[in-house]
Amino acid sequence: MKFSCYLLLIVLFFSCQKSRDINQEKEYIKAQIDLVTQAHYNQDANLFYEPNANEWYDIRYGQITTQHKEEAIPPTQAYLDQMEFKDMVMRDEPIIQISEDATLATYSNSATIRGILNKVPVFWVVAWQSTLRKVNGEWKIISTTNTEATQSISAKVILDYARDYTNASDTIQSLYAMAECKAPDNRDFKTLILSNHKGSKMEQQSGANHYIMKQGEQNSWSYNVNTKTYTDSLSAATKTFVQGHELHWLSLFPEDRFTKASFDGIVPFKDQNAFKITFLNAVKSPVNFYYAFETYQPLGFEIFPGPDQDKVVIAYENWELLNSLNIFKKATFTQGEEVFEYAFTDIKINTLNDSSFESTVNVIEQN
After folding, report:
1. Is the pLDDT of residue 195 over 90?
2. Do residues 134 and 56 touch, judged by C-beta distance below 8 A?
3. pLDDT of residue 19
4. 191 — phi, psi (to 5°)?
5. Does 155 score more than 90 pLDDT?
6. Is there a contact between 59 and 142 (Cβ–Cβ < 8 Å)?
7. 230 φ, ψ to 5°?
8. Which of 182, 204, 193, 209 is closest to 252 using CA atoms?
């Protein structure tokens, strides 16, 4: 019995020792890869390649090339000298796997890189896997496979960062937004927008016109408050018109209304650099959204009403915190020389239910 217990203790000891060794090796590997991140900010090509063997395989763009450290350092240093790194963010916990004899390992991770290269803003979403071998007791990279995200994956990453900026989450189920509006001719009017994940309702009172319009997954309709006339459908153009007024919902969840998001580069928008994300609406017309390069703040979007009409550019202004949600209180619609101003006087979160979207009772008082 004592002999059996003794054997069991030996097994447990070596099992725990092996586990500790593997975890320790993983920490060594992680420390080596962390040098690459440090090298970006330090602009140090020698540190960049410190984890590499003197020779390694580089796998990208459908080909395999052999790289030599002494040849790789000068062009990498030139690149680092021209690059101002804003941030390099690891998007996942690293996946580190080690062979049973602890002589081979792989390190996998993904990252976003944002910076200024030769005075031009750049942004990359990348994933890679490095193979490492023990060389003279140290882990060294002997092969690296690199991949860069597609435009659709890059768009998703940017949209997620934008939601981090606004603090938007799944807890937001509906939005109520009332606006006092001014037309280019200084005419005043009022607009109310209700939005949830399934659809929206717009009420607008301007002079003698007072309409309520609803568009959604289940049904769409319009109601003339003055004549009490109900129409049980909306044209595609009217649905697009209603969606184009869902300013706050679109600043948080544009994927609810549009499809095929694609990162379309970094361009100027309202006097600053902005990520451009292009969607398609229900009639396959592009809808372009813009997010600040420095902060990922939603800046606005633009829609294209038709071939004979100027595009409409919507810009968000005057951001404030509302129940921890970062939200704007003013917006402008610019079409050609015309500018419409929307000042939001009442914004409510999660106060609506399904019946709110089906009611034809007007909220805006009639003049």
Report:
1. yes
2. no
3. 52
4. -140, 135
5. yes
6. no
7. -110, 130
8. 193
Name residue, tokens 């991949």. 147
- The sign of the torsion formed by the CA atoms of 304, 234, 260, 94 equals positive
Strand partners, 205: 190, 210
CB 223 within 8 A of CB 360: yes
Residue 110 clears pLDDT 70, i.e. is over it: yes
Per residue, what are the HEC states of the chain? Answer: CHHHHHHHHHHHHHHHHHHHHHHHHHHHHHHHHHHHHHHHHHCCHHHHCCCEEEEEEEEECCEEEEEEHHHHHHHHHHHHHHEEEEEEEECCCCEEEECCCCCEEEEEEEEEEEEEECCEEEEEEEEEEEEEEEECCEEEEEEEEEEECCHHHHHHHHHHHHHHHHCCCCCCCEEEEEEEEECCCCCEEEEEEEEECCEEEEEEEECCEEEEEEEECCCCEEEECCCCEEECCCCHHHHHHHHCCCHHHHHHCHHHCCEEEEEEEEEEECCEEEEEEEEECCCCCEEEEEEECCCCCEEEEEECCCCCCCCEEEEEEEEEEECCEEEEEEEEEEECCEEEEEEEEEEEECCCCHHHHHCCCCCCCCC
Q: For residue 102, is pLDDT > 60?
A: yes
Residue 184 tokens read as: 């280019």
Cα(25)–Cα(13) distance, integer angstroms: 18
The first and second tokens of residue 83, run together, are 């690059």
**The pair of three-digit structure tokens given for residue 127, joined into one six-digit string:** 């994933």
Asked if 151 contacts 262 with a C-beta cutoff of 8 angstroms, the reply is yes
Q: Which of 2, 6, 7, 76 is nearest to 42 (CA)?
A: 76
Q: What is the pLDDT of residues 210-265, one digit of tens each?
A: 999 999 988 999 999 999 999 999 998 899 899 999 999 999 999 999 999 999 99
Residue indicated by tokens 């902060």: 295
The whole-angstrom separation of Cα 339 and Cα 328 is: 18
β-bridge mates for residue 277, sequence order: 263, 289
What's residue 18's pLDDT? 52
- Residue 228 CA to chain centroid, in angstroms? 43
